[in-house]
Amino acid sequence: MFKKILIVLFACFSAHLVAMDKYDTAMGVHFGTSTGNGYSIRKWGESNAYQVTFAAYTTRKHRDYGVTRKNSVSLGANYLWGLHDSERYKFYLMTGMSYTIRRIREDGLWRSSDHWTVGAGPGFEFEFSDRFHVSIELPMTYNDKDDITMYIPSGGFYYYFK
């Protein structure tokens, strides 16, 4: 009996996916100061979307006086306010923030260099096929580490699935 219930639920779920006109959930990579750098998931609703970005990486540099090592984690959360949706592109207002956790080791000592960035600005998502999309954004950003405010472009490559 349990198998039959699972089969019926699977069939209903599959029929729902096939009935959808447009793809609304994407996974890809995104690069930007206010959006975060790394792997990204984007989910569109009726007209608005949210996006989360995550990356963890380590770098090393050999210098005359020793080795410098950086361990970093980048987290981003963004909300996309849909302004226009055509057949081949979307125009939206991006708002969001990212937080970078960084630990640096120089001369055997660890120090922290964490910072956050916020931003808002226009963006476009271009549809190259039903599943492959490219986004380009130009948010005005503020970075607490460098205390700067300026336009810093961001962008991403996405694969949409049902």
List the helices and strands and how they pair.
Layout: H1 2-19, E1 25-31, E2 38-44, E3 49-63, E4 66-85, E5 89-106, E6 109-112, E7 115-127, E8 132-137, E9 140-143, E10 148-151, E11 154-161
Antiparallel strand pairs: 1-2, 1-11, 2-3, 3-4, 4-5, 5-6, 5-7, 7-8, 7-9, 8-11, 9-10
Walk me through the structure.
The chain has 162 residues and is mainly beta. It is built from 1 helix and 11 strands, in the order H-E-E-E-E-E-E-E-E-E-E-E. The protein has a single domain, classed as Porin (Beta Barrel). Strand 9 and strand 10 form a beta hairpin. The longest helix is centred in the N-terminal third of the chain and has 18 residues.
- In the CATH scheme, what's the topology name? Porin
Reading side by side through the largest sheet, how are the strands ordered?
A: 1-2-3-4-5-7-8-11
Number of domains: 1
Number of helices: 1
Percent of sequence in beta strands: over 45%
Major sheet description: 8 strands, antiparallel, barrel
CATH domain class: Mainly Beta
Q: Which term fits the overall shape?
A: elongated
User: What would CATH call the architecture?
Assistant: Beta Barrel
Q: CA-to-CA gap between the ends? A: 29 Å
- The level of helicity is 10-25%
- Number of E-type strands: 11
Rounded to an integer in angstroms, the radius of gyration calculated over CA atoms is 20 Å
Mean pLDDT: 85
The secondary-structure class comes to mainly beta
